[in-house]
Here is the input.
Amino acid sequence: MTPDRNAPMGDLGNPFSFQYKPDYLYEPLYDWSQPVEFDLFWLVFPTFTTLTASQSNQQVVNVPNDADFEVRRIIYHVDVAAAQATTLIVPNVTILIVDSGSGRALMNNAAPLASVACLESSTPIDLPWPKIFTRNSQVTITLTNFDVAAATNNLRITLAGRKIFSKGMR
Here is the structure.
């Protein structure tokens, strides 16, 4: 195929762009060795309480042993001393996620929470590629306050996705 500089973006003839399949972000191709079933699931972390400047808090949850868990979205909730927030609060905290099943961190360094997760009341943002945590593994999240003057509010983190069951194991 001869490249065509006038071809529209996303067209295979345009040498300056690449078109992903329409289902690239949402239907990755897995090599399943057996048939599977899916079920909606949320993995909810304990509350990260108020963090003073430069303070860290780490919470761990276990992936249930009945199925693997595929994360599609990371959501956070902020409250002010367990009261309803009346304004939009974007906490100055970083997040680091570690998967004990693979023994790897999901990022090379802690990142600002708002760049990784979406606020529950905002427009939902899916992960660029789903992440599978194997059954019985632990997921560890560490939040660190990087605000030099203010303490954070209470934070709750939820991983939204689906359980992956081997057919007949449900």
